[in-house]
Amino acid sequence: MKYRVVIFDLDGTLLYTLDDLWHCVNHALAAYGLPERSRDEVRRFVGNGLRKLISRAVPDGTPDDVQEQVFAELKAYYDVHYRDYARLYEGIIPMLKELKEAGCMTAVASNKADRFTQKLCRDFFGELIDFSVGEHPGVDKKPAPDMVRLALERFGLAEKDALYVGDSEVDISTAENSGVDAIIVDWGFRDRSTLEEKGADVIISSPDELTKIVLEQ
Q1: What is the rounded CA–CA span in Å between residue 99 and residue 119?
Q2: Reduced to 3 states, what is the DSSP secondary structure of residue 132?
Q3: Which CATH superfamily, name and number, covers 5-16+87-214?
Q4: Are the C-beta atoms of 37 and 45 separated by less than 8 Å?
């Protein structure tokens, strides 16, 4: 087995959550009379947490105090509607099962708030994910290496033992900053051409490809 642990991004890699984010953002914008955003616009805005998502979604020149109010509205609404439309990407559960059966450990590192990260991992993956971490105080968001390092510490492993899997330029930088190998998927929130432009070395189109690489099949 080439790697002892695979560390996954969550949104756009294991779970399709774009519609939840899209609906919640537009609810918050509409609450303050601001123009709504298209699904594709929100797709391009995600990746760096909810606060950054709102700063990108509001019109240019929106006062800081209004941005804070929109952000507060988003958080309150997201608390209730964070998984209304969430679903697994095809092939994710079989892939995780095969990795686990082969003795490979699994982790999730997400810029989503930690409590939502924990809930989604528990609800969708159960014991198929050994460790998960999301945004919380004292841990810098990706692309900082903090979350990857927490996962490595949890398992007592070195960088050479880990593979990081994500779907965006944030994930490419996270792997680089953490000193671990990376595989980037093209079924998430960025298209393949964008991933290539951002420097992704290995891009895959199905979970089966990941299994073959990790297990050296």
Answers
A1: 22
A2: strand
A3: HAD superfamily/HAD-like (3.40.50.1000)
A4: yes
- Residue 147 CA to residue 153 CA, distance in Å, equals 10
CB 125 within 8 A of CB 118: no
pLDDT digits (tens, 9 = 90+) for 74-108: 999 999 999 999 999 999 999 999 999 999 999 99
d(CA 115, CA 121): 10
Tokens of 127: 């014991």
Q: What is the pLDDT of residues 148-169, one digit of tens each?
A: 999 999 999 999 999 999 999 9
Helix (H, G, I), strand (E, B) or coil at 85: coil
The pTM is what? 0.94
Copy the structure tokens of residue 50. 């909810």
Does domain 18-81 fall under CATH 1.10.150.240? My reply is yes
